[in-house]
Amino acid sequence: MGCLAYWKSTKRSCAKRKINDDVIAALNIELKTGKGFSSYGAIVEWLKKEHGLDIEYGTVYALVRYQLGAKLKVPRPQSYKHWR
């Protein structure tokens, strides 16, 4: 019996996703707006506030960085002398 046949015969189901497709779509839209997020912690708080989801930081990071392919853009601090 092959590995795939064994897996199907045990009637195991895939793990339930923590974030559904509707929430991922809303997050993707929010990431593409000019406002965006300043940190992954801010995304965790947004998910909790807007969608009532308590998702871990690492899960949010992996979703945003690898699945959605987004990077958080935060300007680097600059000296006040630079603007003189």
Report on the architecture of this protein.
By secondary structure, the chain is mainly α. It has a domain at about 15-70. The protein has helices spanning about 5-10, 20-30, 40-50, 55-65. The longest helix has 12 residues, at about 20-30.
Write the layout of secondary structure elements.
Blueprint lengths: L2 H7 L11 H12 L7 H12 L5 H11 L17
Count of DSSP strands: 0
Number of helices: 4
Order of helices and strands: HHHH
Which quaternary structure do these chains form?
single chain
Low-pLDDT windows of residues: none
Give the termini separation. 74 Å
Short description:
50% of the residues lie in helices and 0% in strands.
Any key phrases for this structure?
84 residues, mainly alpha, 4 helices, 50% helix
